[in-house]
Amino acid sequence: MRQISSFAKYHEEYKTSIEQPEAFWAEVAEYFAWGKKWDKVLEWNFTDANVKWYSGGTTNMSENCLDRHLEKHANKVALIWEPNDPKEASKSLTYRQLHTEVCKFANVLLGLGIKQGDRVCIYLPMIPEAAVAMLACTRIGAIHSVVFAGFSSTSISDRINDSQCSLLITADAVYRGDKKIDLKKIVDDALLLTPSIQKCIVFNHRNSAIDMKPGRDIWWSDLMANANPIHQVARFEAETPLFILYTSGSTGKPKGVLHTTAGYMVYAGYTFKNVFNYQMGEVFFCTADVGWVTGHTYLVYGPLLNGATSVMFEGTPSYPDHGRFWDVVDKHKVNIFYTAPTAIRSLQSQGEEIFKTKDLSTLRVLGSVGEPINEEAWHWYDKNVGKENCPIVDTWWQTETGGILISPIAGVTPLKPSFATLPLPGIQTVLMDEKGNEIAGNGTEGNLCIKFPWPGMARSVYGDHERFRQTYFSTYLGYYFTGDGCKRDEDGYYRITGRVDDVLNVSGHRIGTGEVEDAINQHDYIIESAVVGYPHDIKGQGIYAFVTLAGHASGDEHVRDVIRKTVTEKIGPFARPDKIQIVKHLPKTRSGKIMRRILRKIAEGATDNLGDTTTLLDPTVVDAIKAGAL
Ligand code: WT7
Q: Which of 259, 381, 397, 448 to mutate to test ligand 1, by most ligand atoms within 8 A of the CB atom?
């Protein structure tokens, strides 16, 4: 795989990638195994939101992640699993072992009648079986839809129904810290509402007492016991759908972002190798859950495509104590560590004493992802974890981008705390002004867009291409709009300032304000609600809900409990509002629109200077809300 060795080389490579994108991405793609090479590197049209990479080529993701490494690296460790409970043994799977498991499970899927194009929902904790299931799906051309194991039954059934999955793969239960989560119980509730599901495979992880529905539910171990370990891959056309991953937007239900085979594969492999400057033999530890895109691209696919060793950690950063990440680094001699600012901030608040007993000397590169990293957290990370000796790559990207778009290249790009720095080769970033014009020059700020395709970009919203076009390609015609605000400093370095739409980023979890409102409004105590974000020291953003109540709702604390419970049931515990203010009226314009701008200011703690309030129907409403602000 091509690797960038100096800052001058980065500039050169960037220039080539912009001047001759097709030649550039063709060369990158040469690293991978193809059945048949492509006829055309790129066809695209941002007006209709149609993009195709490597047309005419055929390949297989699972073959590229596994089979291809067997000749030279069969006995190399592909996956290290570290359990939630440090007293339990960790597990390793070599490339050969992982390959065998995946082949067996691919045969299991085929045996159940799953075929190319079928949708398979995966609702599993952070256990190797999650990676096995994903790789087995891609091996046979089935489209996986991984649902984060923190989502509620309603969220699971919504996602299953949207993409009409016929199979669900889950486990009995899991512990996160000392908390038990009964996954199968949650699934049982979800499956009451999902007519498309025919079978449910259950992995026995915790020996928990669960119900197995005859005819529908089957044990993973029973299926695997006699499964054939030999499976010859078929190669699929480059644009064959690879996976769906649901993500929140500013309006409506979460969208099933669709990624396709060859482009995503090439981009995941290239960015993993280059951003982290991965060297053969190194151990890579990404703390993200496989339920999010970071887990897809940089825990499973990116590392395996490069023959790397990837650590999968089931637990949390604070169990049994807040030194657990560093114990994992110490124990497995981790070289590259990739986490989210929210985790860093939560550990930062616990002090530095814990580092005295940990050996972090194997660390060479640190990464950050998911939200802007504030300078204080950056320096704490640099000093305590990196010992001022490891570059920190602040990687900006999204579910829709498939892989990292703006980031330093470890050891190559000069760093600046809190800056994602420069676009990777092939990424044509632009900032737009309010009139929809590109802003030239440096020392400026605008909305971040990308004006040329890259292989890893999403191709559609599952089942709704028009929504894909509308959401990403209609705000600025001819551009992909990211939804993020961004600064570009005098050196041309990019600093992401956060979402400019109604999308919240709570502890790195992406949540639409509308989704939380919809959940709250489902309770009959509630007449109306408005949800906004506010700055939160550890989570980055907290959730602030303003609600108006029906006459029969009584007892403010009771109402708050009910709201938190409703949101947990409809979405998941991570979307629970931090603050709930009960108000008589919401501030509305004469045309009846809720003025969120004002609520946002109040939630931020502003008392005066709320901006223009002259269009309000009743300005006294604002004073009452201000007086009761939490
Ligand atoms: C949103 C995408 C990409 C994997 C995890 C999140 C924010 C992401 C950064 C960063 C500032 C960041 C953006 C983006 N974001 N990385 N390094 N600096 N902001 O994926 O759930 O699709 O969320 O996360 O606001 O739009 P996602």
A: 397
Segment 231-285, tens digit of pLDDT:
999 999 999 999 999 999 888 899 999 999 999 999 999 999 999 999 999 999 9
Domain housing 571? 516-627
Q: What pTM, to 2 d.p., does this model score?
A: 0.96
Q: DSSP 3-state assignment of 461? A: strand
CATH number of domain containing 163? 3.40.50.980
CA dist., res. 404 & res. 468, Å (int): 20
Q: Residue 89's CB: how many other CB atoms inside 10 A?
A: 9
* CA 404 to ligand 1: nearest atom: 3
CA 397 to ligand 1 centroid distance, Å: 5
Find the residues whose C-beta lies inside 6 A of ligand 1.
Answer: 247, 293-294, 369-372, 394-399, 420, 482-484, 496, 498-499, 505, 510
First to last CA, the chain: 53
Among 200, 234, 268, residue at a domain's last position:
234
Any domain includes 345:
no
* Pairing label, strands 119-123, 167-171: parallel
Q: Say how many Å lie between the CA of residue 566 and the centre of ligand 1.
A: 27
Residue nearest to ligand 1 atom 2, measured at CA: 398
